[in-house]
Task: structure prediction
Amino acid sequence: MPQLNPEFFVSQLFWLVVTFSFLLVFLWRISLPRISNVLEKRERKINEDLTAAKELQSEAENIQDKIEQQLKKARSDASELIKSSSATLQEKSQIEISKLEKELDEKINDSSKKIEKSKNESVNQIQGQINEITKLTLSKVTSFEVTEDEIKNAIKNSERSLN
Amino acid sequence: MAAKGEKHSPLEQFEIIPFTRTEIGGYDISFTNSSLSMIITVAVITLFLTLTVNARSLVPTRMQLISELMYNFVAQLLTDTVGDNGKKYFPFVFSLFMFVLIGNMVGMVPYQFTFTSHIIVTFALASVVFIGVTILGFVNHGIKFFTFFYIPGVPFYMHPLLIPIEIISYLSRPISLSVRLFANMLAGHTLLKVFAGFVVAMPFFTGALPLVFIVALTGLEILIAFLQAYVFAILTCLYINDAYHLH
Result:
């Protein structure tokens, strides 16, 4: 077995010491500080970020509280405002309505008067035209000459019988 | 595979081939395939750990993450077993873990020499741990360190039996530590070569069967390469812990 041949024991020990010492010193002085540096830096960064996040969160909670309070206040204000304004509105509208009703009544009166008037006018006109037509018809169809008073009486009579 | 008719031993892969023949003060420091393997291992570790962390980015790249995971893995191992006292030994334990791990992994590359399969190398590493831990024990506890071999809460007539057992088990630590790694590497690589020999030796296409085994065994060997490095590191941690806490 080559392992038990002492020919190269010293050489192997020498190179082992050289290489392992170099490795130990190199890792100890250069590589490991670098890695631990990076790890520490990362840990610090994470911790900083975490504390910052916690602060931000508490800040956000405060703001949330403030917003909620403001909302509450705004709601109560609004409901009060609605109550008071609805009362005043009701009053105002009551006044408006009564005013409007009055106006409407007047207008209705006016118009009914106008209608009455125009009705009478038109009735008179129609009466006249009827008289005229009757007179003309009679004179054309028959040879009767009738006075207007006679025609009027006859129409009145017929109206009476119709009614 | 060399010339026809030559017998190939599965142990041939462990042969040390000197590239130079150098001597300083009567000591042989020939540069061999084993030395080359060690240098490749150290180069791989140092380059990887340096280049991947070069950017020092807060959000790591995949490669940087690997370095950080290795760092955290060993750091966790050390704090779990030794606690806060262990921080001082982190560079040593990390170097040891990486040296054995990457040494084993480099050995998995075909035609690469596996220096962890040589008992002298693993024994040297284990001895460093053993001697260091023993010195640490005496520094921490002075002469009281000998009470390490005295197990409290045992009937007094058991001590003549238990104390020698404790001493023997303590002294055999470097042997068990080094032989465990050495034997695992030796057995695994030998097994691979034996099956590789079957692939060549078996007739027609039946050689495909041992080839399948080689593929599976290679996966197993990679697992063992990691596991043995882990075991080496965790036992080192436990020994350091023993030097601080005597029972």
About this structure: Chain A has a mean pLDDT of 90. The radius of gyration of chain A is 59 Å. Chain A has one domain: 2-162.
